[in-house]
Specification:
2 copies of one chain form a homodimer. Helices cover 41% and strands 16% of the residues of chain A. Chain A has 14 helices and 13 strands. In chain A, helix 1 packs across helix 2, helix 6 runs parallel beside helix 14 and helix 12 packs across helix 13. Chain A binds a DNA duplex (30 and 30 nucleotides) through helix 2 and helix 4. Chains A, B: This is DNA-binding LacI/PurR family transcriptional regulator.
DNA sequence: CCTGCCTCCTTAATCAATTAAGACCTTAAT
DNA sequence: ATTAAGGTCTTAATTGATTAAGGAGGCAGG
């Protein structure tokens, strides 16, 4: 079972390789009769058509879009926000008839060969921490690039929301309800696996730009309302899971004085905080208000959250990369919206 | 900004292309000094390293695994079962340092070019209906193939569960609790978009082998217990969503006599059935028992379901395709397990 | 008969690399 | 001095296709 190429078929039929190529890719350049015989021999030899790699090389297009996540894929797909974004992007790829090449970036691993070796026409980068080596590798490839959420790369299109504004919107909501004792649970600030309390300087040093911005928004709104941010208990997680949220919830709710409102930067985390409240027999929203983020898992739980256009962002990323027109660099900010549900209410009256 | 290749660098330095290639791929074949200069010039010219496509062609490997879903990706990722499987596969791909090329197969579309043109080393096919043209295309490529869930292709490895046994296990559970008036809601039997009642001959003609098998299991267990299957109301859906489940639930619960137990082939559908029951003020499990499938979204809702090893199946698929050793053809069946939670109980006493 | 025009096919350059084999020079051992 | 052994680089074949340009033959019109 030697390898079968165009040449094999050409030799069998006593024609040139070029003719066989035309038979496959431009039927009208070849007589119907000869084309029939070409297909016949191809079938007989089990030839499935021109080798895609060779074709890609000659044509200069790969027929695929590269996708980079910071997280292990197993994590990425556990996050409903990522799934929503992915759906939008996948639909765009479908429409364009190109594949989506998901590139593995093992956690903490500095090996970036996958990026170097990826057979793609463009890259979509999602949520990479500042200074991640894979990003340099992507930029070195000199292919069209779109960055989603973070980090902003001057000279390339960026898609996301106005994070500080969205964060401020969430915080202002509870502040306007009258809350003054806040607590915060956030995931995805740093890449170092830290779990636990985080002071202001550590918060500010977060390596993920989007989450840093979201937090800045929290702080700005809090200070605007006269809350001393340095006193706001801030619990950091390394995994975006319900269980992690519960852990943060227990830590925050054990603080003295106990927060009356907890801000989280993902809905999944917020669900975990609700679990913690339930564990302690606290009434939500009577005794505790909880705000999520993304409106990805919030509806059933009646969670107040910030909605962002996940799928639209994915679709737009696809359009920019596959649409042919060279994308304009600069930030494209998508709208966000506060969705008030049943997890927030005014704080309980102060104990006398 | 002309194209920069190995040759460009070679010319600049007055060395041969081969030398530059060695500098990149086999540092010890070239003097340290020259290698340094090569890298210097490469940097200066903005050369990111050998062209991946040309490399792939020459080396004969693509560095990617092709993945085929029957569904639009947007659907596929809405299903927690698919996400779980995908996580397992992605982890295996990560370990092997290869990418995962997701191939778009627009619904009903007969265009299979994406499969023909995919630059991959192997294919993983998930849940394709019988006779889907993309499968022929995949087989024609003569690359390693693993099929997951369906359809079974003689001569290639197959991974999945014993569907008839799993279906029978689910049905037997409610039958043994004493239920005799069953109802069934299933998605993914046919590819024709049909929504509504389905008679036995249509059920039997389902084009998705796995779901057909699962249904066969339901029927076998029912008949074993003396239930006349032709009388069992059977509602078919075309989308696996909670809303679809609710629709099926309403249809089934309006049947006369009303079923006391409803079997569904996905957890998501089961959640929708629970919604319908809640709409009607029916107590679950007091007045109605509901069984899901996959244990993918069941835990929080207290759903009785069949657990299957989603991630393990994905991981094994990856291992078979990337492990180097040629995979043995034939079926590999993974274990399944009945998880009894709070959605099933004995039927209410017959009205006198 | 000559010319022009089709149709159908071939020639040959090209895409961007990898790598076995060989050339050339230096150094070390016999 | 001779030979062998390394180290470093070059030559040239190879991977499997695409496609512009050109040639051969047939046919119609002047």
């Amino acid at each position: 079972m030697a390898k079968v190429t165009l040449q094999t078929i050409a030799d069998r039929l006593g024609v040139s390789r070029a003719t066989v190529s035309y038979a496959f890719s431009r039927p009208d350049q070849v007589s119907a009769e000869l084309r029939r015989r070409v297909m016949e021999v191809a079938d007989e030899l089990g030839y499935a058509g021109p080798n895609p790699t060779a074709r890609s090389l000659r044509l200069g297009r790969a027929g695929a879009l590269g996708l980079l996540f910071s997280e292990t894929l197993a994590y990425a797909f556990a996050d409903p926000y990522a799934v929503g974004f992915f759906q939008g992007l996948a639909t765009a790829a479908e429409d364009a008839g190109v594949g989506l090449l998901i590139l593995p970036l093992p956690r903490g691993d500095q090996r970036t060969e996958p990026v170097r070796n990826a057979v793609v026409d463009a890259f979509c980068v999602v949520s990479l921490p500042d200074g991640h080596p894979a990003l340099d590798e992507v930029l070195a490839r000199k292919l069209p690039v779109v960055v989603v959420d973070e980090p902003y790369v001057p000279g390339h299109p960026f898609l996301g929301i106005d994070e500080p504004a969205a964060g401020a919107l969430a915080a202002r909501h509870v502040l306007e309800l009258g809350h003054r004792r806040l607590g915060v649970a956030m995931v995805g600030l740093h890449d170092d696996g830290h779990i636990g309390w985080s002071d202001v300087s550590r918060q500010r040093a977060a390596t993920f730009e989007a989450m840093r911005g979201r937090r800045d928004g929290y702080q700005a709104a809090a200070e605007e309302a006269g809350v001393d941010w340095a006193r706001v208990p801030f619990y950091e997680l390394s995994r975006n899971s319900r269980e992690a949220g519960r852990q943060a919830g227990h830590a925050l709710l054990a603080a003295n004085p106990r927060p009356t409102a907890i801000l989280t930067n993902t809905d999944v985390l917020a669900l975990g905080v609700l679990d913690a409240a339930a564990d302690l027999g606290l009434d939500v929203p009577g005794e505790l208000s909880v705000v999520g983020f993304s409106d990805s898992a919030a509806q059933d739980a009646g969670l107040t959250t910030i909605r962002q256009a996940k799928q639209e962002i994915g679709a737009e990323a696809g359009r920019l990369l596959l649409g042919g027109a060279p994308a304009r660099p600069g930030r494209v900010l998508f709208p966000h919206e506060l969705i008030v549900r049943a997890s927030t209410a005014p704080p309980p009256p102060e104990p006398p």
